[in-house]
Amino acid sequence: MGFGGRFELVRLRTGAWAVRDAVVGEVMHPGAGPGVEAWALYVEELQLGRLWSRVESGQQAEAVVWDVGLGAGANALAVLRSASTRRVRLRMWSFDVALEGLAFARRHGDRLGYVEGMEAVLDRFLSGGGFVGRVGEAEVEWRFVEGDFSRWLVEDAAEVSAPDAVAYDPFSPARNPALWTVEVFRRLYRRLDPGRACVLATYSRSSRVRVALLVAGFYVGRGCAVGVKEETTVASNCPDRLERPLDGAWLARLRRSTAAEPAWLSGDPPGALRPSTWDLLMRHPQFAGCGMGSEPAPDPRGGD
């Protein structure tokens, strides 16, 4: 199917419109809708207000945001809208295999409310694969990186400034497994500046994804509720950025799960935690003193 028929508008239960990728078979922001979900998860959960304050106060020269999974642009536009009210310099890098989803959203901006007011920015971005200029009060450089994000992390990431915030929003592990592996999260973690806090937020609350982030080096916590999801996931290289870090009670449930072993490489099947993975969790500073024992004891009745 060509891109001309790949995307379609769908009406959600809330009445909001969202974009569906017919090839992948998933709706982008299917719960409360793209405007609400993007703001809750990729502005508030990423603590962007705190980041803007650091830039405004001169503690750092600019804010760097990585937008992984540009899609129809709701997350990137939420970041721009948040920055537009502050006197900051923002450099944002959006990653995806193509711009067609964003172009579709621009054509249907009358129904997708999150596009309103950003049409001129989108037109310049779509025509040249980037935007440099002012958005409200903010000085913005917004660039598009086309292709495989996991490969880019190996081959070209050194050319881009380390992020202060990562909006991690690819399609689900079931549809895009290559971007949810331990190896990808380790590559991403190595790109962070160890001297500067970075916050990553994602819509997934999967135990496999959380374990993958932990063994990659991140501290991991529970994120906000979004749509029908009771919670999401937030991670950081700095533990004090987590309001609700995963704790011993979470580990106890994880220990009984039969589907918590992370995907180390794309295509790895789920299963109970291996003793070696459990050992990595026990040595993570987030769980120091939990006293959970030396290896997991899977319960066949356990869930994810």
TrEMBL record:
GO terms (BP aspect): methylation
Domain of life the protein comes from: Bacteria
UniProt cross-references to Pfam families, sorted A to Z: Methyltransf_30
Keyword presence, Methyltransferase: yes
Chain ranges of the MnmC-like methyltransferase domain: 157-236
MF term (GO), any: oxidoreductase activity, acting on the CH-NH group of donors
The keyword Methyltransferase belongs to this UniProt entry's keyword annotation: yes
Keywords in alphabetical order: Methyltransferase, Transferase
Protein name per Swiss-Prot or TrEMBL: Methyltransferase
Organism: Limisphaera ngatamarikiensis
